[in-house]
From TrEMBL:
MF-aspect GO terms: FMN binding; pyridoxamine phosphate oxidase activity
Annotated PANTHER family: PYRIDOXINE-5'-PHOSPHATE OXIDASE, PYRIDOXINE-5-PHOSPHATE OXIDASE
Protein encoded by which gene: pdxH
Highest taxon of source: Bacteria
Cofactor(s) of this protein: FMN
Family designation: Belongs to the pyridoxamine 5'-phosphate oxidase family.
Note accompanying the cofactor annotation: Binds 1 FMN per subunit.
Domain Pyridoxine 5'-phosphate oxidase dimerisation C-terminal: 173-213
Domain Pyridoxamine 5'-phosphate oxidase N-terminal: 44-157
Subunit structure: Homodimer.
Binding site for FMN: 62-67, 77-78, 84, 106, 141-142, 186, 196
Pathway(s) it belongs to: Cofactor metabolism; pyridoxal 5'-phosphate salvage; pyridoxal 5'-phosphate from pyridoxine 5'-phosphate: step 1/1; Cofactor metabolism; pyridoxal 5'-phosphate salvage; pyridoxal 5'-phosphate from pyridoxamine 5'-phosphate: step 1/1
Protein's name in the database: Pyridoxine/pyridoxamine 5'-phosphate oxidase
Amino acid sequence: MSDLSNYRKSYEKSELLETNIPEDPINLFNRWFHEVEDFGGSGEVNAMTVSTIGLDGFPKSRVVLLKKFSEEGFIFYTNYESEKGKAITANPNVCLSFFWQEMERQVIVKGIAQKTSEIISDNYFDSRPDGSKLGAIVSHQSEVIPSRTFLEENLKKLEAEFEGKPIPRPDNWGGFIVTPLQVEFWQGRPNRLHDRIRYTSQSDFSWKIDRLSS
């Protein structure tokens, strides 16, 4: 057994106070996102964990890349027939989480996912490198395959088939947009007295702001 009880650090890089936050969470998310980006931390600042309730009734989390965010929600792309895509289709209640270790920050988004328009999916797919486009076509995401070679050989066949030709977006691949219902911002603070500010969507399209105990 590995005892990790002595893994500790003091969080002292910033603070999150009601006197310095906007009325809606997207503005604060935008501020934090670009502060982390400007800080120059390692890794991908747009990496996020998407948690869903699977068809087997179990929650499952995986890291994907956020590709766009606005007042309307948070967009990422996937194979709709993947385990993740099927789970969202069956139960659109999802959770997104961002952990930015460099600035000792975490954001948790609870919301409802739905497919983006085909235009949005087409535009993003068209912006991808050809290799990524073909990868989306060749990979039957989450399905059991016999070997790595199986994927690579199928990719070579597609490369030959589409050489010099436009590569269309497959119907089973596209975007999901998560409309936030609740957004929690966590800022690490000394002595485990962390700052936690929660925004909850109201029926009049405003946001209720609460401070949570650490």
